[in-house]
Design a protein that fits this description.
- This protein has 9 helices and 4 strands, in the order ααβααβαααβαβα.
- By secondary structure, it is an alpha+beta fold.
- Helix 1 packs across helix 7 and helix 2 crosses helix 7.
- The radius of gyration is 18 Å and the shape is globular.
Length: 201
């Protein structure tokens, strides 16, 4: 089926077929230039009303990592303690404050969303942040790096530790990135077939 796609097969394999969730990494650093290049690629992913609620906290220093690791569950703790770079991926419930820049076609959008219950904005932020995280994973792969996204952590603990209880940021995913280390991959698990996933009506 790969020959029916416009993207060449090597790129298809890099981004999808050969890509795996990494569970160990080498100590080779992930540079600021790589992080900026990934952002420059994935910033074009779609979000509702162009709201772009994803906020990325780059955990690079040993001190920041020591604060994060105790909030990670089970095997996610040692993986996070040794990864060359870790990202805290959060949803910004105050995304509407950026609407004058991100959604100028609707001048009243910021005020309209400011009048909403915070819970409604947080739900919208979470949905669209997850879209952006999916693009981010593909962008990390496009940079030749491996991604290890994790949801097994104390989200409220991370929020209090890094942002404070009154922060509009809600951590959704913690993701290690870098070059894969020894025994980085688990065996590939089965995927659902087309007929099990797609239904035509």
């Amino acid at each position: 089926m790969s020959e029916t796609l416009v993207l060449d097969k090597a790129a298809q394999d890099l981004l999808f077929r050969d890509a795996r969730t990494a569970n160990s990494f080498t100590d080779e650093p992930v540079t600021d230039e790589q992080v900026r290049a990934i952002h420059d690629l994935v910033k074009y992913g779609p979000t509702a009303m162009n709201n772009q609620p994803l906020r990325v906290t780059v955990v690079r220093s040993p001190e920041a990592r020591e604060r994060l690791v105790p909030h990670m569950a089970g095997n996610n703790a040692p993986k996070t303690s040794t990864a060359p770079l870790t990202l805290i991926l959060s949803a910004d419930g105050d995304f509407h404050e950026h609407f004058p820049k991100t959604f100028p076609v609707a001048p009243d959008a910021r005020d309209n969303f400011a009048g909403m219950p915070a819970e409604a904005r947080e739900a919208m932020a979470a949905q669209n942040t997850l879209l952006q995280i999916a693009y981010l994973i593909v962008g990390v792969r496009a940079a030749g790096l491996a991604a290890g996204p994790m949801t097994g952590f104390d989200a409220e603990g991370v929020r209090r530790e890094f942002f404070g209880e009154d922060s509009p940021l809600r951590p959704l995913v913690v993701m290690n990135i870098g070059n894969p280390g020894p025994d980085a991959w688990f065996d590939r698990l089965p995927r659902l077939d087309f007929e099990e996933t797609f239904t035509e009506i």
